UniProtKB/TrEMBL annotation:
Assigned protein family: Belongs to the glycosyl hydrolase 43 family.
Top-level lineage group: Bacteria
Pfam families on file: Glyco_hydro_43
Site positions per UniProt: Important for catalytic activity, responsible for pKa modulation of the active site Glu and correct orientation of both the proton donor and substrate: D158
Annotated protein name in UniProt: Glycoside hydrolase
Pathway(s) of this molecule: Glycan metabolism; L-arabinan degradation
Keywords from the named record: Glycosidase, Hydrolase
GO biological process, one term: carbohydrate metabolic process
Organism expressing this protein natively: Paenibacillus phyllosphaerae
The keyword Hydrolase appears for this protein: yes
An annotated Gene Ontology molecular function: hydrolase activity, hydrolyzing O-glycosyl compounds
UniProt xrefs under InterPro entries: GH43_arabinanases, Glyco_hydro_43, Glyco_hydro_beta-prop_sf
Length: 332
C-alpha cells in the first residue's frame, strides 16, 4: 500500500483540498441539494490511497472550490466474481426510487473469455456491477455477487443508468474494443430493482462512426482499433437525447458528444463535434445549486497525473456547448 499525497490518504481525510491536488480518474459528481454538498466519486486503491484493496472513494464540497476527503464508500468484497486487487473503473452514483445506486466496472483477470480476434491482449471477465446504499456516503452493498449485471460473456465497461421516457431503467455501457476491435456503445434493459437484465443488449453505435476518430494501433495487431468509453445521457430543454462519450484522436483522449435522431435511446445516433480535446475525457455533467450546467472530466489520461477539469456549459434546444473552462475551480 502507498499514498500518493495528502489529498489521497483515506486514513487521514483532509479539508480545504483543491482539485489540482487530487488525483482523479473517471470523475462523477452528485449535487445533493438536501445536504448542500457536491459529492465527487472516483476509484481508490492500494497504489495511491493507502487501501488494502480496490474500492470507491468520495470527496465533498459546498462550493466546488474546496473539498474534503477522501472517504471510502465501497470496498470490493472478498469471494465475489471480481477480484479485489484487480481495480475499479468509472464509479458513478444515481438516485433512483428513493435510494442511491453505485455503478462501477470491476475485473477478474483470472477468468478468461474466448479469444474473439487477433488482438494480443487477454480477454477476461470485466463488467459493470451495481451496489446500493441509503446514503451518498455509503457504505454501498452489491445487489449481486456472482456476476456483473452486464452479460458475463461480454467484456464491457463504464455502465451508466438511463431511465427512458416510459420510466423504464436501462444500463448503457461500452463494449470493450479488446473484444470487438471497433468499440461500441450498447444498452440493456434492467429490472425495476436494477438487480438484473431483462432483455437482450441493443446496439447504439460504433466508435468508428465519429468522423474525427483517427483510430488507434496496438502492438501485435495489424488493423486499426476504435475505443469507446464513458457514456452519459442527458435530455435537453428541447427534448433531444444526447450522450457524452470518449475516444481517441491521434493518441490523445477526446471528450465528445452524440445525439439521438429519433430522441429515443435506440437511436439512430449522429456524432457531433468533440467538446474538449487536449487528452481530456470520461466526462459527465451536473447542475450546480444555482442551476448552471457544468462538465467535469479528467486530464491528462494517465494516473496519478490526472486531475479534474470543470467547464461551464450552455444548454441549447438540441445539445450542449462549452462556454469556458473554470480555472478558478480546477486551477490552470
Amino acid at each position: 500500500m502507498s499514498v500518493y499525497n495528502a489529498a489521497s490518504d483515506v486514513a487521514n481525510p483532509g479539508k480545504g483540498l483543491r482539485l489540482c491536488d487530487i488525483p482523479v480518474h473517471d470523475p462523477f459528481v452528485v449535487a445533493d441539494a438536501q445536504s448542500g454538498f457536491y459529492y465527487l466519486y472516483t476509484s481508490g486503491g492500494p497504489q495511491f490511497n493507502g487501501m488494502e484493496s480496490w474500492g470507491v472513494i468520495a470527496y465533498k464540497s459546498r462550493d466546488l472550490s474546496e473539498w474534503e476527503g477522501p472517504y471510502v464508500v465501497f470496498k470490493i468484497p472478498e469471494g465475489i466474481w471480481a477480484f479485489p486487487q484487480h481495480g475499479v473503473w468509472a464509479p458513478e452514483v444515481h438516485a433512483y426510487n428513493g435510494r442511491y445506486y453505485l455503478f462501477a466496472t470491476l475485473h477478474n483477470h483470472n477468468r478468461s473469455l474466448p479469444e474473439a480476434n487477433a488482438i494480443p491482449l487477454k480477454k477476461h471477465w470485466r463488467g459493470t456491477t451495481i451496489a446500493v446504499s441509503d446514503s451518498l456516503e455509503g457504505p454501498f452493498e452489491l445487489l449481486r455477487t456472482d456476476a456483473p449485471v452486464t452479460p458475463s460473456s461480454l467484456m464491457t465497461l463504464d455502465g451508466t443508468l438511463h431511465v427512458d421516457e416510459a420510466g423504464k431503467p436501462w444500463m448503457v455501457y461500452c463494449h470493450e474494443w479488446i473484444q470487438v476491435v471497433d468499440g461500441t456503445v450498447e444498452a440493456v434493459p434492467l429490472s425495476d430493482d436494477l438487480s438484473e437484465t431483462i432483455g437482450e443488449p441493443v446496439h447504439l453505435f460504433r466508435a468508428s462512426e465519429a468522423a474525427w476518430d483517427s483510430a488507434e494501433r496496438t502492438d501485435g495487431f495489424d488493423g486499426a482499433v476504435y475505443i469507446s468509453d464513458g457514456c452519459q445521457l442527458y435530455r435537453t430543454k428541447g427534448d433531444r437525447l444526447v450522450m457524452l462519450w470518449s475516444s481517441y484522436e491521434k493518441g490523445k483522449y477526446v471528450q465528445t458528444i452524440a445525439r439521438s435522431v429519433s430522441g429515443k435511446l435506440e437511436g439512430p445516433w449522429e456524432q457531433l463535434a468533440p467538446l474538449v480535446k487536449e487528452d481530456s475525457g470520461h466526462g459527465m455533467m451536473f447542475r450546480t445549486f444555482e442551476g448552471d450546467w457544468m462538465l467535469i472530466l479528467h486530464r491528462p489520461f494517465k494516473m496519478p497525473d490526472s486531475r479534474c477539469k470543470i467547464y461551464e456549459m450552455e444548454e441549447t434546444a438540441d445539445s450542449f456547448e462549452v462556454i469556458r473552462p473554470r480555472e478558478d475551480l480546477h486551477g490552470a
